[in-house]
Each structure stands twice: as structure tokens, then as C-alpha cells.
Description:
elongated, nine-stranded mixed beta sheet, alpha/beta
Amino acid sequence: MPTQWLHVLGRAPAVGHAGCGAFRLGSGAQLRRIAPVLAGAAGAALLWPASPALQEQSEPKAPETGAKKPQRTVNVDQEMLKSRRLFLTGEVNDDSAKVLVQQLLFLEADDPEAPVTIFINSGGGLVHSGLAILDVMRNVSTPLKTVGYGRCFSIAAVLLAAGTPGHRSAYENARLMIHEPSCSYPKLSASDVILKAEELRHTKETLEFVLSVLTGKPKADIVDAVARDRYMSVQEAKSFGLLDTVISRGGVKAEVPPEDTEMAGTSAKE
């Protein structure tokens, strides 16, 4: 600090003590004169705004209250698989057949004795894909309950009828349809047309045989039934042998043996 300011403050170095750091207090009059100056400087220092960084550090953080709970997401497909309920919807093709076959084999390995319910709502599709599903359904040891809803046309009606006997059902407003297999081929040579026709005849006879076994009807009756598109209500399908029970709002209406009542899901009514 310059010497002139030390004299003003009354704190000039004492004579004979240079470099020792000793100071001499000024008179009372001097202190009274500089007191207002010191007070103003101190007030200005207190009122000087702090830097933003210091303000952020000095502001206390509010305590966190009401921490949000993590939302639980539900995968419906996984939940249905856990409850051993499978779905065949839309077109029957290689992709849908792969999914359903994988699920059937998985559930059989998990518990071969526990029933599996297959819900079907399909307008049909590729015959060979449907027959692939049919072969697996008939060879797994797991009891299979089939339930039709919406529509079950063509190969989908065959799969509905392929459930375990006594456990094939459909909701009261579902519609079923069976018919001969159909195809459309691009321009082919005569030899190729003959080969395709032979393969189509084989597929037709296979479906007629399968329907005869599933419905208990003679093959001749099946041939006549599938000559044209045959649409059926659930009651007509039950009479034809494609279904065992009809699920209505009042319960399941069908002739179900007493021991099978538990498998049907509700009490049976005549």
C-alpha cells in the first residue's frame, strides 16, 4: 500500500522500525474522518453482485420428491403363450405355419400333458402350409382345443376340425366354409399343365380324406360337399361334424360328456 494512504489511515510505519512491520495508530480525529469512507467501501463490497458460477453453486438444490415409478409394459403375445393360448389369424402361409408349429413344439416340451387352446380366425391360404400345421397338431402329445371366431374358411376350417375330439368349438357368429382346392397357373406348356393338374388332384384327394376322418362322414359325402364353396353357420358346422360345441353368450351349448366339462371351459347345456 502506498505510504500516502497509510498516513491517511493513520498507519504509517513507526520511525526507527523500518521493515519490522510495526504501525502507528492515528489520532481519533483522523479515524473519525475516514470512518464514512470505510463504511461505504464495505457496503459496496457487500452489494457487489456475485458471478453466475458462484450463484449457481450457492443456490441449494430442492430435494427430490415423488420419484416416478417405472412403467410396466405387457407383451400380450408372451402372456398368451404363457397361458398356453395360441392364435392363427389372417392368411395361412409358410410364415404363420412356422410360428404356430414352433409354439406347439415349445409348449409340448414345456408340459406335454397340459392342454393348449388354438384360436382360429382365417380366410384360408396355402394348402401345403395348412397340411404342415395339421401334421404337427396330430402328432404332438398335448391335448389341443380349437376355437373358431370370425371366419374359418378353406384350410382354416380343416384345422379347426383337427382339434382333439370333444374340444372343437366356435363362437356363435363365426362362419365356416369348405371347398375343393383351387389354383391359378401362368402360361405353361401342355406337359407342365398335366403335371400341375395331377398334383392338384392329389391335394384334392388328400383334403377329402382328411375331412372324412375328422367329420366321420363317408368320402363320397365329402366329395359332394366340397364340389362348390359350402358356407355354414356354427350350428350347420356342428351337424356336419366340424365342431363339437357352440360358444354363446349364455354358455357352451352342446352335448359334452360330464368328464369333459372341465376341458370345455364352462358348464355344458343341452
